[in-house]
Amino acid sequence: MTLNKSQQLLLALMVCGLITLCVYKGLYLVLLLGGFFVLPLIIRNAFLVVTWFVFFSYFRLHEAMPVLMPFKIPLLLALSSLSGLSFQLWLNRDRISWHPVLTFLCIFTFWVFLSCIFATSRVAAFSDFNSIFIKIFIMVFAIAWLPEHPDQLRRFPFWLLLCGLVIAAIALHNKANGIGLVEGTRVTIGRDIRSMLGDPNDLALVLQFPMAFAVTYCFFGSKLQRFGALFCVVFLLFGLLATQSRGGLLAVVSTFFFMAVLRTRSLVLPGVIGVISLATLVLAAGISDRASGGAAESGVDESAMGRVYAWVAAFRMAVADPFTGVGLNNFYLNYYFYSPHWDGKNHAVHSTWFEMLGELGFAGLVLFLLMLFCVLTTSRRLLRTTENTPMQPLAESLWLALISFCVGGTFLTQGFTWPLYILIGLIVALDRLTQPSRRVAHDQPYHTS
What we know:
18 helices
């Protein structure tokens, strides 16, 4: 029997109402039983389910929009993702291919696990490992293995940009209404509920990821699509400027610079663009008005010195234990014992590289850099293999996002958060689906401007 649009809408409303009633009454067993009826749908759309779990975990959409929190959407998506992944791996077990990047990822993850065993606070280390990092690890394989056709990956940027626009809109709304401002000028989201987005640097980190995709797609597609991508760039940029994060601004400038390198195959013009962009963005962000790191502080400002002290502390942690450091999620707890300067409170490390150094030791940093180098070489190769194909914009977006991660990671703590690992999953998936034996026969050349 075929339903018309009115009947489909009525059925959807009835199902939504039933789910809401079950949640309100606490009838989770009913929802669990009902889940078996939608399991075939989940299996057929496993990659889409995993994608939205990643978006909710990375963008913290339920925290940015607290009205979604009672529905436990991340939990439901996590259970659905694991179910879909398990069935898909079983059904397609003969077609699963391994990738060298995944080998480095497994070795690095094993070292993170070792650092938890020898951590100064095993409770803090395993709490972070079990609640965050192991989910990220599993989802890398889900992103890498679940897509069965390149078209599934081509839809990813659209939803990514949509989520980025939602977060940027909420950030600008908070800025305009003075909600959750730090130091009087720096915007945050969900600070009252202790959301990850309650830190302006973390909010800048979240916005810089979709920025790389938006910049790339300004050069691909129809005029309407390019205009839409340009709108995303401007909107995301305003949201990022509101955070007044210097690390975020450097990441954006690096995105502009390397996109110019890709388009011109030169360094002179991109260098000029980079310098002008940096100066313009610093002025537009109003960083000189910040309470910390602003123009009111002479010499090396307090914010910069805080980073220097944190980096020295990370180096001392690695010297004390060169193999496993102080352990995952233990830098903050050990800051007092290793910092050359104490101002009455512990501080975050504010650098991905020093985070790895302090929490995983010299050995852990080397393993992380080897993994990153393998990802960069794979992404660089994809730029050549996907040239003049429909997958070229995605390959360029992933390359720019990696560069943005490396630059922003120097000043932002993102070694154990989603961005890099989402990129790893997408790069492995793209490399798998664009191998000569797997290329779709009907793909036509994709012309750029």
